[in-house]
Amino acid sequence: MNVEQARAGGSGFKTSLRCVMSKNLYGLSVKKQQEGWKKLARFVDQDWWLRMIAADDAAMKQLAVSLVPISDPILDTAVQSRARAIMGKNFLGLEEVRRGYGIALDSEPLAEIPFSEETLQACKDTHVLVAGSALSVNEIRKIADSDFYDTDWYKREPFANDKKVSVRWYLLRSAPVPESRNKTYDQQCSLLTKEEEVPFACEMTYMVILYWRVYCERLLPDVYVRCQDKDSISYRIVVGNFDSGGFDVVRYWDDVRFDACGLASSVPPLPARP
Questions:
Q1: What is the rounded distance in angstroms from the CA atom of residue 131 to the CA atom of residue 207?
Q2: Among 102, 216, 251, 261, which one is most buried in terms of CB atoms within 10 A?
Q3: Could you report the per-residue pLDDT of 65-91, keeping only the tens digit for each?
Q4: Domain map of the chain by residue range?
């Protein structure tokens, strides 16, 4: 069932209810169930509600998991709490990963944040600090298929299956590198400082989709960004244009220039302490 069908209602709503309600919840009176749904509706937006109605059982499980941490959140460490205070909304920690992707990350490898406070202060309005989980582009899409543009050209592409996000902290630019639109890839890369690098498609996809699922706000809504990857015929992978039609993953050759295509960038982490 798609969103248009969901707007009209249908059997998908009953499927969603079966998935999100346990047998114990079914034991409640209709009145109590209705009271609960009314309260829940105050804290989720229309897009989430429509995704819930349209979801199959697998997708519904992910949406249901995203609500669980309301009563039992994953607490930040002192270092993470300080980073959250600096980054504000541009912080996606372990709790946000559980809410957005339904994944409980091991806290140990993410206990320390490999960026200085000075770097975070400088990047707080332009970058997103995000805890990484080992997901490929297609694994992210499996979790959040309705958030992607409807195409399957990269279903068997190595860049979308083999390359995965590392379990570490990322500091990813939330918009194209300034002045990088309407340039070739080499021209775009020449704009990077020594403190920047080009991220992989899985890393940008992971951050943008997670930001959307947590905050219901689309990054890269009208622009693509080039990533480090190439496809099986050596075209550069380009992601973004995240409008109501979904997050898009496309490919272009490096010499093409157009105004709706900039460059992705990230800040490399500091070396691990000995």
A1: 9
A2: 261
A3: 555 444 467 889 999 999 999 999 999
A4: 3-65, 74-267
